[in-house]
Amino acid sequence: MTDRITNSQLYQLIATNFRELIREPGVLFWGTVFPILMSIGLGMAFTRKKDVVTIVAVAGENHLVWHPNDSASALLQFLDAGRSSIEKDKTGTFSRTITIADDKLGNTTFVFRSMEWQQAMVLLKRGSLNLILDEKSGALQYHFDPMNPEAQLTYLKLSRMFNSKGTVLAGSGTSVVPLTVSGTRYIDFLIPGLIAMGVMMSSMWGISYAIIERRSKKLLRRMVATPLKKSNFLLAQIAVRVLMNFVEAGLLFLVAFLLFHTTIQGNVAALFTLFLAGNFAFSGIAIFISCHTAKTEIGNGLINAFSMPMMVLSGVFFSYHNFPGWSIPAIQKFPLTMMADGMRSVFIEGAGFGEVAFPIVILTATGIVFFIAGMRFFKWH
Amino acid sequence: MTHPETPGGNLVIRVSNVHKSFKTVQAVRGIDLAIEAGRFVAILGPNGAGKTTLVELIEGIQQPDEGEILIMGKTWKGNENYLRQIIGLSLQETHFIDKLSVWETLRLFASFFGIGKERCEEVMQLIALEEKKRAWVVNLSGGQRQRLALGISLLNKPRILLLDEPTTGLDPNARREIWAILRKLKEQAQTSLILTTHYMEEAEQLCDSIVIIDQGKILKEGTLTALLGEVRDLPVKPVETRRITLDDLFISLTGRHLHD
Lengths: 381, 260
What we know:
The complex is a heterodimer of chains A (381) and B (260).
Chain A: H1 2-6, H2 9-22, H3 25-47, E1 51-59, H4 74-81, E2 85-88, E3 94-100, E4 107-114, H5 117-126, E5 132-136, E6 139-144, H6 149-162, E7 174-178, H7 186-216, H8 219-223, H9 230-260, H10 268-289, H11 296-313, H12 328-331, H13 335-349, H14 353-377
Parallel strand pairs in A: 1-4, 1-5, 6-7
Antiparallel strand pairs in A: 2-3, 3-4, 5-6
Chain B: E1 11-22, E2 25-36, E3 40-44, H1 51-59, E4 66-71, H2 80-86, E5 87-90, H3 102-113, H4 117-126, H5 142-154, E6 160-164, H6 172-188, E7 192-197, H7 200-206, E8 209-214, E9 217-223, H8 224-229, H9 246-254
Parallel strand pairs in B: 3-7, 3-8, 5-6, 6-7
Antiparallel strand pairs in B: 1-2, 1-4, 8-9
């Protein structure tokens, strides 16, 4: 009976595949260990929702006088009654924190931060906050993009808290002021991030995977058996990809312009330079990733290892300020974060060369370092 | 045939006491080889004999652990650009870009040598793929792909052609088509060929001399007639109607068949 099973084609095929898998440590790592590490990382980021911290800007006329002794503000009276804690940062800005305890849904902590309207708008465009609160004659005004689900949730939670029975604000008038000005909508936040992510993904897959596949098929080895200039080969790979990235980004912007009237509020030349620097950084990383392996399975894993964390953490789809505070300085150093933040600042905050010079320099340096490291270990055959 | 710039007479390749190991495997163990201009030489041996490693050493992508290799009197070090211009190569298995046509593939490789359309047309004719000029590589048969690989190796009119098992896995017809191309090349007497194979018929059909290697060492070398003349004391006497082959010689030397 045992012999019949072990002699069967299916058994031998399964056994062969299994042996092949466990005898290739790289495949095993990328296939099993890496997804586990990713799940641990993402699990830590998203499942510890016991304390959701939401920043709410308090802007408008009241923000200048919004200090602990201001008794004219109904909002302040509410926060005092709710035993909020008061903090004053280095710039002298007051913020008050209040927590709504909820055993089932998890606690929600609101940080009410007093600031000027312009600053509040910049933070809103960056995704650091999603709602601005204003108080006029004792009535609260909520300013947010009605198309942003996170902002809607903040509004619903806040209005429920403010209007609960027995509070100073109960029965006072409230109004919602939709923010649909270009640059404040979710789509304005999303487009620069999508362009940056497109550059990353296109470079990683377009350059890395193509090189690894050519190596695995021995085409690379065949090519370098001729007088082919190796630099030409790599240059061609990068040039085609950068060109494609321009076309893809241009199309994405065109669609956003036609459908959502998205505009570039800052310096177009600065945006172009930043875009080039981003392409350079990701091309360098792509060359580094593909410098040695001839196995496409390992290539897949490496590409995912570099791109997935950035895709999730770098604030392409939502602000990375949702992640724990300790992680944000590290996230801000990722190439994708730098590119996406820089592009957002030009697209929606009106930034010029001065504001994006730092990301341009860092992205270019990243490209150079990874390119040199990649060439150092590059295996042509 | 003697080339004027070939130092030391008409030797195009000289391999002297070359050793090469990979981790614990000794792939090449003290091989000496001298190949004259215009000669077709077969490296014959079973799988794992060290044929491919020897070709890779001659081709310059592997460095010998010990010994020296001279191509046209030059070592690879410092002469790579020149040597790449005069060597043609076809690997045991190369997958060209699937969705590139035959013509585009030839043009691509021709560009590496700075060669224009005319030579591509000539090569296309030589490998008899004119009808498939616009066909994607992915749609070619195994034999057609191998002819394309051979055509690419001939684009630069190489002085030295290295073919690593060019007909392995091909059906007899496809194999004969490759042989026909190589015979035409031989008639022109411009190219020296090193051909690795484990098909003795291929070596017999195409080559002036044959080098039999096993376990990284040369067992015998010489012309086909000389080698067959050496077949003595075979374990099994050939049946009267069967002609003596190189396989018989290999059996007499190792106790195994060439195709084992």
